[in-house]
């Protein structure tokens, strides 16, 4: 394989400005009001909410805080719901469907207010998002959806005809699309570092490199056994999402870790960036396995991500596939090198909705399905309010656990086959699309 096809670094681009590091060692408390497992966006935001309410909080992470998806994602504040409104109504009823749709808007507004009021330095920019249609039929559906968003939720959104497409993104690959202006971009590793800062300042205790090995319920609450000793807790919140292991067997049978990979180009000239991304918007497309892409916060590179069918190691083929997708969108980048290629786990499940639920006294905040920039802080904060018995802030995502997956216990052996099926569906859709 040509050297130009391989990225210079296999670590996240985001770690250049905000490297993930271990926290200073500190003794593990013998007891706490709440123990939180997982120190990503959800766990930290939950811990912040609880600590400010006066609870003693210990947050544990087997890796460094933020080393998982919180510092590896695309930094797009999409807050996607995988199911259509019609599918939500069919599955959960009209009342919950409406509440879920409304909560998507509330969740985005929550994190924007959170960034502003806490003074989080994370390169946030409210850029808007362009969503490309692969054919004229998709364009009509996106246009109707944009109109419905504006009418039902008051979100600034509109259709973009093919003739006006290059005003938003410098490619002829699509047949028009839509824009919604309530979505922006941020630097995910800086965002996590800032949430960690305010959570520590609120008095929560956060431990890195401390693996939870067992959680036992007793008369006073829970005994959490870890690699650093045991801690007693009145309540336990599990926020491990795509990095769930055997310490949470109930969740592991329900959450499927799926690799998502991102590539970053070398720095591009200002003129080329202006041509390819004239409005510096976040971008996506109407495919089952569509790419998501964006400019870097400094406006000098393009980052593009998509699903990765590999399950071990760091093979070159997924990077090469993303690079081909990048050049298909932007032929001008055929000779441009890649500076970074990396992957992280998103968590999928059979319901495909973010979720708060309980089982045997344990509370879970999880299942962000690739949109954790918005959903993880929101669901984490709502789960914390649930632990505080604040019924006024009950989430529409707080209901039963997702169904378990038969014959599955943490290793997603079936995902490569599923991804190949989805890719075939996309190829068929492209072949049938009116172009």
UniProtKB/TrEMBL annotation:
> Which domain of life does the protein's organism represent?
Bacteria
Q: What is this protein called?
A: Glycine/D-amino acid oxidase
| Molecular function GO terms recorded | oxidoreductase activity
- Classification via Pfam families: DAO (PF01266)
Keywords recorded for this protein, A-Z: Oxidoreductase
GO CC terms in record: cytoplasm
Q: Which PANTHER family match?
A: FAD DEPENDENT OXIDOREDUCTASE DOMAIN-CONTAINING PROTEIN, SARCOSINE DEHYDROGENASE-RELATED
Q: Where is the FAD dependent oxidoreductase domain?
A: 33-383
